[in-house]
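Pilot study result, target chain (367 residues):
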Amino acid sequence: MGVRKKGKNFFIDYYAGPKRYREMVGPNRREAEAALGKKLGEIREGRFFDRKEYPSITVEELAEKFLEWAKVKKSAEGYRVHSRPIVEHFMGRLISTITEHDVERFRSVRKDTPTRNKTPRSASTLNHELKMLRGMMSKAVAWGLLEKNPAAAVKLLPETKGRMRFLSIEEVGKLLDAASRHLRPILICALETGMRRGEILSMKWSDVDMKNMTIFLPETKNGKSRHVPMSSRLRATLAALPRRLGTDYVFTGEAKVGKRNQVGIPGKPFHDVRTAFENACARAGIENFRFHDLRHTAASHMIMVGVPFKTVGEILGHKTAAMTERYSHLTPEHKREAVEMLSATLQGTERGFNRAPIGHQKRKGHE
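Predicted structure:
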Protein backbone atom coordinates (compact mmCIF):
# COMPACT_ATOMS: atom_id res chain seq x y z
CA MET A 1 0.00 0.00 0.00
CA GLY A 2 1.35 3.44 -0.88
CA VAL A 3 2.56 5.50 -3.82
CA ARG A 4 4.44 3.85 -6.67
CA LYS A 5 5.85 5.12 -9.93
CA LYS A 6 5.38 3.29 -13.19
CA GLY A 7 6.76 4.91 -16.28
CA LYS A 8 6.11 8.64 -16.06
CA ASN A 9 3.09 8.41 -13.78
CA PHE A 10 2.51 7.74 -10.09
CA PHE A 11 -0.08 5.22 -8.89
CA ILE A 12 -1.72 4.89 -5.50
CA ASP A 13 -2.27 1.46 -3.97
CA TYR A 14 -4.62 0.93 -1.00
CA TYR A 15 -7.16 -1.41 0.58
CA ALA A 16 -10.78 -0.61 1.40
CA GLY A 17 -12.13 -3.60 3.29
CA PRO A 18 -10.95 -6.80 1.62
CA LYS A 19 -10.66 -5.12 -1.81
CA ARG A 20 -7.43 -3.71 -3.15
CA TYR A 21 -7.47 -0.54 -5.30
CA ARG A 22 -4.81 0.71 -7.73
CA GLU A 23 -5.31 4.08 -9.42
CA MET A 24 -3.15 6.25 -11.64
CA VAL A 25 -2.88 9.86 -10.47
CA GLY A 26 -0.34 11.54 -12.74
CA PRO A 27 3.31 12.58 -13.03
CA ASN A 28 3.50 14.49 -9.72
CA ARG A 29 4.42 12.55 -6.54
CA ARG A 30 2.99 15.13 -4.13
CA GLU A 31 -0.37 15.04 -5.89
CA ALA A 32 -0.34 11.25 -5.70
CA GLU A 33 0.44 11.36 -1.98
CA ALA A 34 -2.38 13.87 -1.47
CA ALA A 35 -4.79 11.64 -3.41
CA LEU A 36 -3.80 8.64 -1.29
CA GLY A 37 -4.30 10.62 1.90
CA LYS A 38 -7.76 11.64 0.72
CA LYS A 39 -8.73 8.02 0.01
CA LEU A 40 -7.44 6.81 3.37
CA GLY A 41 -9.34 9.62 5.11
CA GLU A 42 -12.58 8.56 3.39
CA ILE A 43 -11.98 4.96 4.48
CA ARG A 44 -11.36 5.95 8.13
CA GLU A 45 -14.48 8.13 8.19
CA GLY A 46 -16.64 5.48 6.56
CA ARG A 47 -17.39 7.62 3.50
CA PHE A 48 -15.49 5.54 0.97
CA PHE A 49 -18.20 2.94 0.33
CA ASP A 50 -20.91 5.59 0.09
CA ARG A 51 -19.40 7.13 -2.97
CA LYS A 52 -20.16 6.20 -6.54
CA GLU A 53 -17.40 4.61 -8.58
CA TYR A 54 -16.37 6.79 -11.52
CA PRO A 55 -14.31 5.67 -14.50
CA SER A 56 -10.65 6.69 -14.62
CA ILE A 57 -10.26 9.39 -17.26
CA THR A 58 -7.45 11.88 -17.81
CA VAL A 59 -7.81 15.56 -18.58
CA GLU A 60 -6.63 15.08 -22.16
CA GLU A 61 -9.20 12.33 -22.68
CA LEU A 62 -11.93 14.58 -21.30
CA ALA A 63 -10.78 17.44 -23.56
CA GLU A 64 -11.01 15.15 -26.57
CA LYS A 65 -14.55 14.10 -25.62
CA PHE A 66 -15.57 17.70 -24.97
CA LEU A 67 -14.21 18.97 -28.31
CA GLU A 68 -15.97 16.16 -30.13
CA TRP A 69 -19.22 17.19 -28.44
CA ALA A 70 -18.56 20.87 -29.24
CA LYS A 71 -18.05 20.38 -32.98
CA VAL A 72 -21.56 21.62 -33.74
CA LYS A 73 -21.07 24.77 -31.66
CA LYS A 74 -20.28 28.14 -33.26
CA SER A 75 -17.46 28.60 -30.73
CA ALA A 76 -15.87 25.21 -31.47
CA GLU A 77 -12.55 26.69 -32.59
CA GLY A 78 -12.39 28.93 -29.54
CA TYR A 79 -12.92 25.86 -27.35
CA ARG A 80 -10.02 24.14 -29.09
CA VAL A 81 -7.69 27.11 -28.57
CA HIS A 82 -8.53 27.52 -24.87
CA SER A 83 -8.30 23.78 -24.16
CA ARG A 84 -4.61 23.59 -25.15
CA PRO A 85 -3.12 25.26 -22.04
CA ILE A 86 -5.45 23.19 -19.84
CA VAL A 87 -4.25 19.93 -21.36
CA GLU A 88 -0.61 21.03 -21.19
CA HIS A 89 -0.90 22.00 -17.51
CA PHE A 90 -2.82 18.91 -16.33
CA MET A 91 -1.30 16.37 -18.73
CA GLY A 92 -1.60 12.84 -17.32
CA ARG A 93 -3.83 13.86 -14.39
CA LEU A 94 -7.04 11.99 -13.68
CA ILE A 95 -9.96 14.42 -13.52
CA SER A 96 -11.07 12.80 -10.26
CA THR A 97 -7.83 13.97 -8.58
CA ILE A 98 -8.16 17.64 -9.53
CA THR A 99 -9.20 19.91 -6.67
CA GLU A 100 -10.35 23.50 -6.40
CA HIS A 101 -6.82 24.37 -5.25
CA ASP A 102 -5.41 22.81 -8.43
CA VAL A 103 -7.70 25.00 -10.52
CA GLU A 104 -6.65 28.13 -8.62
CA ARG A 105 -3.01 27.16 -9.09
CA PHE A 106 -3.62 26.74 -12.84
CA ARG A 107 -5.06 30.27 -12.89
CA SER A 108 -2.00 31.64 -11.07
CA VAL A 109 0.48 29.83 -13.32
CA ARG A 110 -1.24 31.08 -16.46
CA LYS A 111 -1.36 34.62 -15.08
CA ASP A 112 2.40 34.54 -14.44
CA THR A 113 3.16 33.08 -17.88
CA PRO A 114 3.58 35.79 -20.56
CA THR A 115 2.30 35.36 -24.10
CA ARG A 116 4.56 34.32 -26.95
CA ASN A 117 5.12 38.03 -27.62
CA LYS A 118 6.36 38.47 -24.02
CA THR A 119 3.32 40.56 -23.07
CA PRO A 120 1.23 39.98 -19.91
CA ARG A 121 -1.67 37.60 -20.36
CA SER A 122 -4.96 39.50 -20.17
CA ALA A 123 -7.66 38.82 -17.59
CA SER A 124 -10.05 38.19 -20.47
CA THR A 125 -7.89 35.37 -21.84
CA LEU A 126 -7.46 33.84 -18.39
CA ASN A 127 -11.20 33.94 -17.84
CA HIS A 128 -11.85 32.24 -21.18
CA GLU A 129 -9.51 29.42 -20.11
CA LEU A 130 -11.17 29.12 -16.70
CA LYS A 131 -14.59 29.02 -18.34
CA MET A 132 -13.32 26.31 -20.66
CA LEU A 133 -12.06 24.22 -17.73
CA ARG A 134 -15.29 24.82 -15.83
CA GLY A 135 -17.32 23.76 -18.87
CA MET A 136 -15.28 20.59 -19.37
CA MET A 137 -15.67 19.56 -15.75
CA SER A 138 -19.37 20.42 -15.79
CA LYS A 139 -19.86 18.12 -18.76
CA ALA A 140 -17.86 15.41 -17.01
CA VAL A 141 -20.33 15.59 -14.12
CA ALA A 142 -23.28 15.49 -16.54
CA TRP A 143 -21.77 12.50 -18.36
CA GLY A 144 -21.28 10.55 -15.12
CA LEU A 145 -17.48 10.79 -15.26
CA LEU A 146 -17.00 12.97 -12.19
CA GLU A 147 -18.72 13.53 -8.85
CA LYS A 148 -18.48 17.32 -8.67
CA ASN A 149 -16.96 20.22 -10.60
CA PRO A 150 -13.73 21.44 -8.88
CA ALA A 151 -13.74 24.63 -10.96
CA ALA A 152 -17.31 25.67 -10.12
CA ALA A 153 -16.40 27.88 -7.15
CA VAL A 154 -13.20 29.41 -8.60
CA LYS A 155 -13.84 33.09 -9.27
CA LEU A 156 -13.07 34.77 -12.57
CA LEU A 157 -10.63 37.67 -12.62
CA PRO A 158 -11.98 41.23 -12.87
CA GLU A 159 -11.76 42.56 -16.42
CA THR A 160 -11.31 46.09 -17.62
CA LYS A 161 -14.64 47.06 -19.11
CA GLY A 162 -14.93 48.49 -22.56
CA ARG A 163 -11.48 47.59 -23.91
CA MET A 164 -11.41 49.22 -27.33
CA ARG A 165 -7.94 48.94 -28.78
CA PHE A 166 -7.89 49.90 -32.43
CA LEU A 167 -5.24 50.72 -35.00
CA SER A 168 -4.46 54.07 -36.54
CA ILE A 169 -4.34 54.35 -40.34
CA GLU A 170 -0.55 54.26 -40.16
CA GLU A 171 -0.59 51.10 -38.02
CA VAL A 172 -3.01 49.42 -40.42
CA GLY A 173 -0.54 49.99 -43.25
CA LYS A 174 2.36 48.60 -41.20
CA LEU A 175 0.38 45.50 -40.21
CA LEU A 176 -0.64 44.73 -43.80
CA ASP A 177 2.95 45.23 -44.98
CA ALA A 178 4.20 42.85 -42.26
CA ALA A 179 1.56 40.18 -42.89
CA SER A 180 2.42 36.91 -44.61
CA ARG A 181 0.95 36.22 -48.04
CA HIS A 182 -1.85 33.99 -46.75
CA LEU A 183 -2.68 36.28 -43.82
CA ARG A 184 -2.95 39.58 -45.71
CA PRO A 185 -6.30 38.82 -47.47
CA ILE A 186 -7.75 37.69 -44.13
CA LEU A 187 -6.68 40.96 -42.49
CA ILE A 188 -8.16 43.03 -45.31
CA CYS A 189 -11.43 41.14 -44.90
CA ALA A 190 -11.45 41.83 -41.15
CA LEU A 191 -10.48 45.49 -41.47
CA GLU A 192 -12.95 46.34 -44.23
CA THR A 193 -15.99 44.42 -42.99
CA GLY A 194 -15.61 44.14 -39.21
CA MET A 195 -16.33 40.42 -39.49
CA ARG A 196 -15.32 38.13 -36.63
CA ARG A 197 -12.42 35.72 -37.05
CA GLY A 198 -14.69 32.67 -37.06
CA GLU A 199 -16.96 34.27 -39.66
CA ILE A 200 -13.99 34.98 -41.92
CA LEU A 201 -12.31 31.59 -41.65
CA SER A 202 -15.58 29.73 -42.25
CA MET A 203 -16.49 31.88 -45.27
CA LYS A 204 -17.38 29.95 -48.44
CA TRP A 205 -17.28 30.97 -52.08
CA SER A 206 -20.96 30.10 -52.43
CA ASP A 207 -21.71 32.91 -49.96
CA VAL A 208 -19.61 35.52 -51.80
CA ASP A 209 -21.59 37.56 -54.33
CA MET A 210 -19.02 39.32 -56.50
CA LYS A 211 -21.65 40.95 -58.70
CA ASN A 212 -23.55 42.62 -55.88
CA MET A 213 -20.41 42.94 -53.73
CA THR A 214 -21.82 41.27 -50.62
CA ILE A 215 -20.88 38.40 -48.33
CA PHE A 216 -23.66 36.30 -46.83
CA LEU A 217 -23.10 34.97 -43.32
CA PRO A 218 -25.61 32.16 -42.67
CA GLU A 219 -24.48 31.64 -39.07
CA THR A 220 -23.25 34.33 -36.70
CA LYS A 221 -22.51 34.65 -32.99
CA ASN A 222 -25.92 36.15 -32.20
CA GLY A 223 -27.73 33.40 -34.10
CA LYS A 224 -28.89 35.60 -36.99
CA SER A 225 -27.74 35.61 -40.59
CA ARG A 226 -26.64 38.85 -42.23
CA HIS A 227 -25.29 40.31 -45.47
CA VAL A 228 -22.02 42.23 -45.28
CA PRO A 229 -21.10 44.73 -48.03
CA MET A 230 -17.71 44.44 -49.73
CA SER A 231 -15.40 47.31 -50.58
CA SER A 232 -13.82 47.47 -54.03
CA ARG A 233 -10.43 46.55 -52.57
CA LEU A 234 -11.83 43.52 -50.74
CA ARG A 235 -13.63 42.40 -53.89
CA ALA A 236 -10.37 42.64 -55.87
CA THR A 237 -8.49 40.85 -53.07
CA LEU A 238 -10.93 37.93 -53.03
CA ALA A 239 -11.06 37.76 -56.82
CA ALA A 240 -7.28 37.29 -56.87
CA LEU A 241 -7.42 34.25 -54.56
CA PRO A 242 -7.27 30.79 -56.15
CA ARG A 243 -10.34 28.57 -55.91
CA ARG A 244 -9.07 25.17 -54.82
CA LEU A 245 -10.55 21.92 -56.04
CA GLY A 246 -12.47 19.85 -53.51
CA THR A 247 -13.34 22.72 -51.16
CA ASP A 248 -15.73 25.68 -51.12
CA TYR A 249 -13.88 27.53 -48.37
CA VAL A 250 -12.29 30.84 -49.30
CA PHE A 251 -9.27 30.74 -46.97
CA THR A 252 -7.54 27.36 -47.05
CA GLY A 253 -4.10 25.86 -46.52
CA GLU A 254 -1.60 25.67 -49.36
CA ALA A 255 0.76 22.90 -50.41
CA LYS A 256 4.47 23.57 -50.83
CA VAL A 257 5.23 24.99 -54.26
CA GLY A 258 8.81 25.78 -55.22
CA LYS A 259 10.30 28.04 -52.56
CA ARG A 260 6.94 28.57 -50.90
CA ASN A 261 6.51 26.57 -47.71
CA GLN A 262 3.35 24.65 -46.92
CA VAL A 263 0.78 26.71 -45.03
CA GLY A 264 -1.82 24.91 -42.94
CA ILE A 265 -3.37 21.75 -44.35
CA PRO A 266 -3.67 21.98 -48.15
CA GLY A 267 -7.30 22.41 -49.19
CA LYS A 268 -8.58 22.60 -45.61
CA PRO A 269 -9.91 25.82 -44.03
CA PHE A 270 -7.70 27.53 -41.48
CA HIS A 271 -8.77 26.79 -37.92
CA ASP A 272 -6.63 29.54 -36.47
CA VAL A 273 -4.16 32.16 -37.72
CA ARG A 274 -2.91 33.17 -34.30
CA THR A 275 0.80 32.49 -34.90
CA ALA A 276 0.86 34.28 -38.25
CA PHE A 277 -1.07 37.21 -36.76
CA GLU A 278 1.15 37.56 -33.69
CA ASN A 279 4.28 37.38 -35.88
CA ALA A 280 2.89 40.12 -38.14
CA CYS A 281 2.12 42.32 -35.12
CA ALA A 282 5.65 41.79 -33.80
CA ARG A 283 7.22 42.71 -37.15
CA ALA A 284 5.01 45.81 -37.38
CA GLY A 285 5.86 46.87 -33.82
CA ILE A 286 2.22 46.63 -32.72
CA GLU A 287 1.78 45.59 -29.08
CA ASN A 288 -1.18 44.54 -26.93
CA PHE A 289 -3.35 43.81 -29.96
CA ARG A 290 -5.70 40.88 -30.60
CA PHE A 291 -7.30 39.66 -33.80
CA HIS A 292 -10.70 40.68 -32.44
CA ASP A 293 -9.40 44.26 -32.19
CA LEU A 294 -9.47 44.38 -36.00
CA ARG A 295 -13.26 44.40 -35.60
CA HIS A 296 -12.94 47.37 -33.23
CA THR A 297 -10.67 49.04 -35.78
CA ALA A 298 -13.25 48.69 -38.55
CA ALA A 299 -16.07 50.01 -36.35
CA SER A 300 -14.00 52.88 -34.97
CA HIS A 301 -12.97 54.23 -38.35
CA MET A 302 -16.48 53.91 -39.75
CA ILE A 303 -17.76 55.97 -36.82
CA MET A 304 -14.98 58.55 -37.19
CA VAL A 305 -15.75 59.18 -40.88
CA GLY A 306 -19.37 59.77 -40.03
CA VAL A 307 -21.14 56.47 -40.78
CA PRO A 308 -24.37 56.43 -38.72
CA PHE A 309 -24.35 54.25 -35.62
CA LYS A 310 -27.31 52.23 -36.86
CA THR A 311 -25.54 51.39 -40.13
CA VAL A 312 -22.35 50.38 -38.33
CA GLY A 313 -24.37 48.12 -36.02
CA GLU A 314 -26.08 46.47 -38.98
CA ILE A 315 -22.78 45.83 -40.79
CA LEU A 316 -21.12 44.36 -37.70
CA GLY A 317 -24.20 42.39 -36.68
CA HIS A 318 -24.58 43.99 -33.26
CA LYS A 319 -27.52 42.59 -31.37
CA THR A 320 -28.35 45.84 -29.55
CA ALA A 321 -27.76 49.54 -30.18
CA ALA A 322 -25.80 49.72 -26.91
CA MET A 323 -23.05 47.57 -28.43
CA THR A 324 -22.47 50.17 -31.15
CA GLU A 325 -22.82 53.13 -28.81
CA ARG A 326 -19.62 52.05 -27.06
CA TYR A 327 -17.87 53.90 -29.89
CA SER A 328 -19.66 57.20 -29.22
CA HIS A 329 -16.54 58.71 -27.64
CA LEU A 330 -14.86 58.59 -31.05
CA THR A 331 -17.07 61.33 -32.50
CA PRO A 332 -15.93 64.53 -30.73
CA GLU A 333 -15.43 66.36 -34.02
CA HIS A 334 -18.92 65.49 -35.20
CA LYS A 335 -20.32 66.58 -31.84
CA ARG A 336 -18.49 69.89 -32.14
CA GLU A 337 -19.91 70.34 -35.63
CA ALA A 338 -23.40 69.71 -34.24
CA VAL A 339 -22.88 72.33 -31.52
CA GLU A 340 -21.62 74.84 -34.10
CA MET A 341 -24.71 74.21 -36.21
CA LEU A 342 -26.88 74.79 -33.15
CA SER A 343 -24.98 77.97 -32.35
CA ALA A 344 -25.44 79.29 -35.90
CA THR A 345 -29.15 78.60 -35.69
CA LEU A 346 -29.53 80.31 -32.36
CA GLN A 347 -27.60 83.37 -33.46
CA GLY A 348 -30.48 84.11 -35.82
CA THR A 349 -32.65 84.78 -32.78
CA GLU A 350 -29.97 86.50 -30.76
CA ARG A 351 -32.11 89.60 -30.08
CA GLY A 352 -34.82 87.46 -28.60
CA PHE A 353 -32.36 85.84 -26.20
CA ASN A 354 -30.93 89.18 -25.15
CA ARG A 355 -34.32 90.64 -24.27
CA ALA A 356 -35.43 90.41 -20.69
CA PRO A 357 -38.42 88.22 -19.91
CA ILE A 358 -41.74 89.87 -20.69
CA GLY A 359 -42.65 90.34 -17.06
CA HIS A 360 -39.45 92.31 -16.48
CA GLN A 361 -39.50 94.52 -19.58
CA LYS A 362 -39.74 98.27 -18.95
CA ARG A 363 -42.90 99.71 -20.40
CA LYS A 364 -42.93 103.05 -22.13
CA GLY A 365 -44.11 105.73 -19.76
CA HIS A 366 -43.40 103.61 -16.64
CA GLU A 367 -39.67 104.25 -16.15
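One observation from the pilot: The chain has three domains: 2-50, 59-142, 170-330. A full batch analysis is planned for the follow-on phase.
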